[in-house]
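Quick check before the chapter quiz. The format below is the same one you will see on the exam, so make sure you can read both the input and the output lines.
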Amino acid sequence: MTQVLEVPKADAERLRALRRVAIVPAYNEEASIARVVGELLAYDSGLRVVVVDDGSTDRTADVARAAGAKVVSLPFNLGIGGAVQTGFRYAWEQGFDVAVRADGDGQHDPAELDAILRPVLADEADVAVGSRFMGGAGYRSSRSRRVGIRLLAWIVSALTRQRITDPTSGFQAANRLGIRLFAADYPHDYPEAEATVMVFKHRLRLREVPVAMRARESGRSSITTVRSVYYMVKVVLAIFVALFRRKAVPLD
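Here is the expected output.
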């Protein structure tokens, strides 16, 4: 396919000069993973797409491989945090300069990668995160989840002293510094809010940018209404514990 880059010309040229990888954590995403891989390769034919198969019991790994992805298979389900850290560890050890993360369920639209790559390529951020709640994108979710996200956003904003609107977004881009941080240490079990605090604790630059996200193509979210309260309590506690954790040991 023809490489398609809509970022400004100077940034597009800079991107082509970099080794770049897309990290796609996936658990039982057989129905959606081929489209995710195909869209990422259509966005940038020079992008290495790495699907981290998190102990799936379906054909996720085979379908991803057939679609053109490099597949890293975990022997059992580690959860989203373990899968994401595995992907960043691969990116670090293989010497990639920039990494993007897109989930395997199809919610993250590769057409929006321009937005999250732009501040990283311009050296304005070490980690850029796509926010569903900036710019009036109109993202819809359950009332309980919206309330929970707003509460988390308020807590994370207060702790980082920077306005954060979408602390649960996993749509990310990172430069070499961000890759090193997430390869060395990434929170497990609904980790994004804690990871945001970790970025600031390590004095890396984080920028949110508005993006549009899609509904899941298949399956269902692991965060149900019944689990929302449990999730909130657990994440808030993890965030405050993270404030007192020792910094991750940098990778060589």
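If your answer matched, good. The longest helix spans residues 225-243.
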